[in-house]
Amino acid sequence: MMYRSFKICLCLAVAFGTSDLLAQKRALTHEDVAGWKKIKTEDLSPDGKWAEYIFGPDEGDNTLVIKNLSAKADFIIPRGSRPKFTFDSKHLIALVEPQLDSLRALKRLKKKKDELPKDSLAIYKLSDGSLEKIAEVKSFKLPEKNGEWLAYLSVAKPDKKDSTSKKAKKVSDDNGYTLHVLKLADGTHQTYPFVTSYEFSENGSRLAFQSTGDDKGFSPGIYTVSKNDLAMKPVFRSKGKYDGLRLSNDGSRLAFLFDSDTLKKPFQTYGLFQWTPGQDSGRVIVKADDPFLMKEWQMAPQDLKFSDDNKRLFFGTQPKPLVGDTTLLDEEKAKVDVWHYKDDYLQPRQKVLSDDQLKRGYLAVYHFDTKKPVQLGNLQLQEVKITKEGVGNFALGGYESAEYRVVSQWEGSPINQDIYIININTGAAKLAKKKARLMENISPAGKFGYWYDVADSAWYSLEMTSGTIRKLTDNSKVLFSDEENDSPNFPSPYGIAGWLENDSHILVYDRFDIWKIDPLNPATKERITRNGRETSVTYRYVKTDPEETSIKANAEIILKGFQNEKKQHGFFALKLKGSAAPSQLIMEDAQLQFEKKALNADTWLFTRETYREFPNLQLTNNKFSNVEQISDVNPQQQNFLWGTEELFNWVSLDGIPLEGMLFKPDNFDPKKKYPMMVYFYEQNADNFHNHITPEFGRSIINFTFYTSRGYVVFVPDIVYKIGYPGESAINCVMPGVTSLISQGFVDKDRIGVQGHSWGGYQIAYMVTKTQLFKAAEAGAPVPNMTSAYGGIRWQTGLSRMFQYEHTQSRIGGSLWEYPLRFLENSPLFWLDKVNTPLLIMHNDADGHVPWYQGIELFSALKRLGKPTWMISYNDQPHWPLRYPNRKDWTTRMQQYFDYYLMDAPAPLWMTEGVPAVEKGINYGLELSEDHK
């Protein structure tokens, strides 16, 4: 069973004594870390009587647990994945993956993809616990709001015997697979051949699918299946290219794209088709050459969307792509990029966006009442925002001119836009605001556009019928933007909770509270949470219904509360109709996180975690009474030394009060001297109660792993002075470290420091200014702000200029305005002062910080004869993502710091290196026989 008695645990602690229990525990090893598990998905049945969750290690087979919440009984499906309860709460459907070890063994034997084992389908009946498994399944789907049937694609090969053809048609991604439709109550079952796409209507009344047809008389085309009797009806039968299959929510309309030309060509000339029950065949409503289309434009192969009232069908159009000279061979073509100073974006950014631009659809709508299509978006109004339901008469459009995009390369995002009101019925666009630097959206009922304007740190509403713009917040009495902003940029907003029904009010966050604001009369704003600022509690709305678009005006809502000084977390209830402050439901010295609410029941899942307590699933209700833990995925934790956590306060060299997190080993003795690791990245103290699962991390030390093995770990907060980021780090971190040394339990000769990216930069800067650290590691650092300033963030293709002028690097201006700031903050120019061994990790496919920055740092230190190593994982981005690489990096970092701070033997990669000719054969992880 997965339940633990806290009374028993307490009795054991009293009986044996805390010191005796600790003596029985041991430090974590890498083998222990590899087996540590996480909860990966969780859900509740709509009736709230069942829960499911998947847990497993980072790499390995997962386990699906189906839990009867009343009987407190578990049913286990090994390797279960993608579980989903049926809408009627009678079944749970999931896939069952092959064993990972079996797959690897077959891959080692060079088996082809189609020879490898496939997923199975598991159908678990909740009422009697029976389980049916179906082999060789590719995917399955359930209706969102009907639990009577399901559909799945089988990858099993059809019967090869076919006397009518010389070669039987094979199942494949292009040809399609066998579609099975199954009624769950009585097992009624139908199959359809070579299906490439399928989908249910939301209410589950109808299923639609597209087939490429077989060789036995089943024609290619679109078909529907009725829920009641699984009767199939052809909608449209013809060879050609299909796309965009979509049913309306109630199943009364079906739409798809179709091109009758079967020849291979650079693009498809689709027509838009629609079908309703009673029609003998789907009919084209927008032809491929329809006059409504702009010149040299075509239908875009993208998802279609019906409005909830079925009066509209939204689709996309796009310019026809350019086609090059097809007579030339590839080796006859020049491969060249042309950079032009008047281009809106640099070539790397254009390349990143090119695929999206080729596929982008510009929003259009077909009105069923007038039988007319209307174009809403275009090359200027690329982003058009409509309500979730697709109703209302207006859409919101934004136009980014080339001028705006050019300056964004050094100003950053958001980009200036011209805001337009678009009439959905006519397509007419009216300019509402010129050159606004904002993040915009449309209200749920479509009555207002709204945005946060970065330039004046204020929220605005746009009345769609009149075009009137109203300033919702003026920051005169309270700030609705980041009060603690310490970068040379406009402060970010705290955000919004949502809108009340019928767009009557918008709920806006300040640092602590929630304000109800009338978009037509902002002066009447009301602080509905009453006491957040006074009690230092930050309130945030908990959206328990994922389909919710607006909040009922008389609702009782649930709020997440965070007590900023004590770092406590809790949940509160607030009645929107009334004058009372939020009512506390639960408040603990722990991190509490809402996960799920049952669709049709007052059953909730949340997690509770601390540094020592894993975030297991907790079962409760909306009053948070009768809280019950329903998972225990890492019971082995009790066998290991872990650590404790506390807040630590000190004052920066600038006189600023600061706080940080201090982690100590389980068997901490204040009279002993401990090695200490220091890690930082801006501010982390608000994460005080976060559980830190032992894992092979992407870039930073695992605090739990290090405290388990006898280290103290210190995580200080940093505040920044514009123009002097490196100095700011020194001013904040160093007095924190020296304050801890003065406590008497830190060995001042055994202190290491580690950080990644922005943290890596600060460490590279620090080691040019202090010799306090015995060893340091800097991941993906920027040692040279002058060369990095003109570089590219390759993942996005953006110029790096904005980062230095306005965001994290905090220089506050261009290289030409503040050349000395760039030089003073660049460690490269002061590396001759370094006397601290430095380990660098920088990957050759880093899309955030150019790889050459790590090379500049390593090469300079190498020339200066400083002890330095650089680890570079091939084809990996800003962090090592592949599991073997993460495990390798965790091992090397531990070996490095253990050598300098724990007197452990050095590994061969540190003492001798790993020659390129031995790459992939010798990793150098063996420990040297020589000590130091």
UniProtKB/TrEMBL annotation:
Keyword Zinc among record annotations: no
Keyword field: Signal
Signal peptide residues on this chain, from the entry's feature table: 1-23
Residue ranges that the Swiss-Prot or TrEMBL entry lists as coiled coil: none
Peptidase S9 prolyl oligopeptidase catalytic domain location: 733-901
InterPro entries referenced in this protein's UniProt entry, alphabetically: 6-blade_b-propeller_TolB-like, AB_hydrolase_fold, Peptidase_S9_cat, Serine_Prot_S9B/DPPIV
Gene3D superfamilies: alpha/beta hydrolase (3.40.50.1820), TolB, C-terminal domain (2.120.10.30)
Keyword check for Plastid: no
Pfam family name, one: Peptidase_S9
Domain of life of the native organism: Bacteria
The protein's name in its UniProt record: Prolyl oligopeptidase family serine peptidase
